[in-house]
Amino acid sequence: ATKIRVIAPIAAALILGIGIGATLPKPMAKASAVQRADGPSIMAQVTGTTTTSTPVIEPPVTEPPTTAPAPPPTTPSGPPPLQVPTGKGMWIWQPDQAEAGDVAGIVARAQSAGLTHLYVRTGSSVDGIQGGEFLNDLLPAAHAAGLRILAWDFPYLDDVGVDVDRALQAIRYVTPSGDRLDGFSADIETPAEYVALTPESALAYGAALREGVGPNYPLIATVPRPSPARQSDYPYTEVVQYFDAVAPMVYWIDVSPADATAEAMDFLGAFGKPVLPIGQAYDGSAEGGPPGTPSPADIDAFINTSREHGAAGVSFWSWQHASDDTWSTIAAAPQLGVKPPG
Predict the structure, then answer these.
(1) In whole angstroms, how far apart are CA 224 and each of 69, 137, 279?
(2) Is the peptide bond before 185 cis (omega within 30 degrees of 0)?
(3) What is the pTM of this model?
């Protein structure tokens, strides 16, 4: 059954090609006071927030003289093809609750824990674009330290065009330092979270997003844990079709972390794409689990099972929920996959 947890907005608005909001607002109140366990999401009705793309005016094309050779093709900028994150990662939901928003502290803790990548929220259908000022500070510092930063967004799929436009604004954003995000993950939830999810809407969103970014930009589909019940009612095939990797939210709550992880890896591995499980680092007692954050043994079981079943990398939800024991266990765990070049 779908679980519930609290999510809220985290930061200021991105403005494509110009800059992003100058302040970091406090989190909004949630529609539910119960923490949801199926993934990074917002339990709230769609408010109709829309975004508008800034039109790009291309200069006129002048044909070269027939006697002159054509100019060489421009080398595209951005990440190498299909460079999905490997190693150990963490999700940042509210930056002011991750080392109190201190970028130097975030980078230092990430390095001490052996992290290779972070997911940072950049918006949703409800809240629009978010996180700009934080990205302006985080991206150059993280890149200098060899950390990759990936955006994550929660599309409600009521208006696929608006959802794709918002994602592209984040993906195309350039900080004053010239840094860009290293990939994008769409947190594609279920109708229980008010998402207009159907096979058709999932395909339309994925196809339009892929068309917008081209074939070489890393796209990750974040999906619910494929329990037997979820496998029967969630369109995994259509959701993952246009994405390069899939990240299941393996929040085990009151079941064996090893069993839940193996089940997710085996089911999703059949799609032939890298699987990047997201582990539980929060207290699941409100959802029927034992009180407190998962034990070191549970964290180890999740990481070890992910490795044994061929995971390219793992990450954890979320930074602000993880206990000191969780951080220590993650730091002590061997690395997964191969760390991508900086």
Answers:
(1) 53, 31, 12
(2) no
(3) 0.78
